């Protein structure tokens, strides 16, 4: 079959990948696991692959980035094939939709608008075009269209950015810091005598304001937390290595010793 020839062609490019996914989803000859999947079951893998792309970039591992981008591309093709199987749309419709959007959102490149404007003005124009698109989709609320499936910290920042556009925002970082102090106090009070669901609510409020602080400081809270995770992993690995030099494991140590080794690991990094 022609499709089999394409599937086994190393130079088949994107059409080859589309053919592979179509074959995997074939209800008669395809893979039982792939056939059983739907949008909801695949969505977690899509999110995971996006994070693995970000991880490869953060580590500057360009060889791995190539593979991770392929994994992410596969997710797009998988969702498009599920949609095609259901008669909703296909991968070509996906490509057309994003191409149309990019052309419409860049009139200074593909239209008659002047490119002689600052990046800040281009950002304002981009947001105005997006607002018009939301209005055309009957998304009239300020917060309409902020995806529910985003990581919580990222969604918090996007919600806050939307609210800030209509003036619902603290003008000074000092006010955000004051709110953090207030939320810490409320969390402490909740932890003292309130049920777990109320403690969780207050903790969520604190995280939400921390995300707001990141936005005011032009930081990405997701990236900052990934960096903190990487630092913790690196330093704790050093603690384990130092313990191993003594013939010990963390389970054979105690907090005081590991804390001292942690301080040593920090000191070594600062040299």
TrEMBL record:
GO terms for biological process: dATP catabolic process; dGTP catabolic process; dTTP catabolic process; dUTP catabolic process; response to stress; TTP catabolic process; UTP catabolic process. Its EC number is 3.6.1.8. Residues 37-110, 177-235 form the NTP pyrophosphohydrolase MazG-like domain. It catalyses: ATP + H2O = AMP + diphosphate + H(+). InterPro entries: MazG-like_dom, NTP-PPase_MazG-like_C, NTP-PPase_MazG-like_N, NTP_PyrPHydrolase_MazG. It holds the Pfam family MazG. Residues 246-271 are annotated as: Disordered. GO terms for molecular function: ATP diphosphatase activity. CDD domains: NTP-PPase_MazG_Cterm, NTP-PPase_MazG_Nterm. Residues 261-271 have a biased composition (Basic and acidic residues). Gene3D superfamilies: MazG-like. It comes from the Bacteria. Belongs to the nucleoside triphosphate pyrophosphohydrolase family. This is Nucleoside triphosphate pyrophosphohydrolase.
